[in-house]
Design a protein that fits this description.
The chain is mainly alpha-helical and 370 residues long. 75% of the residues lie in helices and 0% in strands. It contains 23 helices and no strands.
Amino acid sequence: MSTSSERLDRYDAYLRQDPANAPLAMQAFELALELGYLERAQAYLDQARAVDGDAAYLSHRQAALLAAQGRWPEALAAQRALCQRFPDDADLQATLATLLHCAGEHDAAEAVWSELLAGGRLPPHAWAYRLRTLHFQRRLTEGLAWASAQPLEGQPEAAGVLSLMAVDAGDFAAARRWVTVALAGAPGCGEALAARGAPALAAQDPVSALADLNAVLQRRPAEGRVWSSAGIARLLLRQPQAAIDAFQRATALMPAHIGSWHGLGWAQLLQGDLAAASAAFESALALDRNFGESHGGVAITHALAGRAEQADHHIELALRLDPASLSARYAQAARSGALQHPEAFQRLAERALRGAQAPDGRSLLDWVSN
């Protein structure tokens, strides 16, 4: 059986004999793009363009290649130009929204998704990315409610996104349901595999969860959410250094995932490394300055370091944004003198990880996984 790379070499041989074969050049383009051979992909695209000129399908695939190269402004400009040429093409609009999401322009992406939804024109193949946009915006209830009215049995990728949204919403029964749907249609769905260990984590069974998560990581080591869940399991096992290692892998793979920065910060606090914990919580805060738990995490590090004014400032912001903020309550305890040393905080945090609840009834796990 030949490898994909060998198949691409055969395409090259055929195209040398038949350089005007644009369909074959595009088959080679798609394979090169899949393999990450971006320079070769551009050459195949140029070969097809020499035959078909400014055909719309070529502009569409050029935008995809620019996105793969990380050239987001150019990719978005190319896709917007296509949408202007074909304003009634819902697939092109959905691709624009997907590119906006991947470029980090989530509000702009949601504006396009909303316009497609309002007109009843959102293609089913785009449901997964629309849900990812809602997930990033933490509009979990809205996303789960919308999905409950859609026929998702044939949409395993969307079901995988929903499994993680349900985990982050604390609905583990729904998470299990969506995991089943996703893995039935796509056994390698990374998001569903990441969510599969969450019920065991919620049940304070980190050993079972970690066994499942490690099995996934052996096959898919680039799944950031799985690393993040493994970090939580290590925290529950009171293995802070192993948790730090896992969360560092998660943040490297998903630098925009706030919960992984929170987990890293807590693990570093348990190790007594205030400077590193402060940097982790500040990284989370830089992603969204309106998330109360990030302010609370920063407040804890200031309080434990004796920086009262800065701690009070972030406590106030955290409680204004989220009156039930667990980390803000811990920061208040540190400020009141109940936790005068980092070691005292470590004992309190370890009790929380073993299942003790904060006054608002939540455990640390409830929000670290969000």
